[in-house]
Predict the 3D structure of the following.
Amino acid sequence: MSNYTRCAACRYLRRRCCEDCTLAPFFPSTNPTRFAHVHRIFGASNVSRMLQQIPEEQRSEAADAIALEAFWRVQDPVYGSAGVISALQTEISGAQRELAETQARVAVYAARARSANAQVSADEERLGDGAGAGVYLPSNHP
Amino acid sequence: MTSSSSPCAACKLLRRKCAPECVFAPHFPPDQPAKFANVHRVFGASNVAKLLKQLRPEQREDAVVSLAYEAEARLRDPVNGCVGYIHLLQRRLRELQHDLSLAEKELSNYLLVPAAGPHLVGLPHYAFNPSFAGGINGVAAPMAMNSTDPVLPVGMLYDRTGSFGATAAFRLPAVQLLNGAGGFGALLEQQQQRQYHNPEQTHGEE
């Protein structure tokens, strides 16, 4: 890569970006903040070493994950990704409770509807029998 | 604080004198060498020291525990680190939200259908918000029309203190959860889209 298009890492580190720069594929010059976060949390040499230890086809995915972890740590220096995990676990727990409640309500209404429908059917059957069942109707009454 | 005869795990690994004011000493005791070794390997000692010095002393232990957790996760899975687990949780949350949406739709069929027949008379009427707005606040209170009908429990506020997970014993303080459609899960996905999938589209997060 020529000096005109230094990657974000080399630009940040104020060095020449050579053609075989190990960080260039993952830290384009269009996103300087991404590398700034990663450098702040992990350090350039650590990231370079970590990526070199990973098979080439997985490095992009690894760089993305590292960038995310760095971003979350910058946002929350105390808990970082752990804070994200905790928040998700809390939301999941709440969603599970709400789902259980809603399903319980549905079950109650469904049971009532079934019971009411059964009652209506029984009433209709009784009215259909008419005089034979001895049903009291106002018009019958003297 | 360790005495000069027993340097902390950090100073032992770094082969240096453990000073009385060593920032690592309270959090990396000499009997847990692996903890610092992992953190150093992933983050680097100087980065960790800088991070800890930016924090108040009472925050540092929690920070060290979370750093140790992240370092361990990354060493176990060098590609995804703990982001892999986060994706799993996000998927689980999406599934639950989907199931909840279906259940609410089913419930609204019972609540919103006008008295389509005598069999619906007498059921309690609930002022109910069928949409899952992030799941942060509870839904509205019930108004039972028939005093003999049971008042079902309403949606509740989520407990904002969460446990950290199986690997850590400490209890995290309240996490700032967000209101609005989708809640924290949705915000997280937005952040990931910006940082993770489309790095070229991001312009400054700070």
Notes: The radius of gyration of chain A is 35 Å. Chain A has a mean pLDDT of 88.
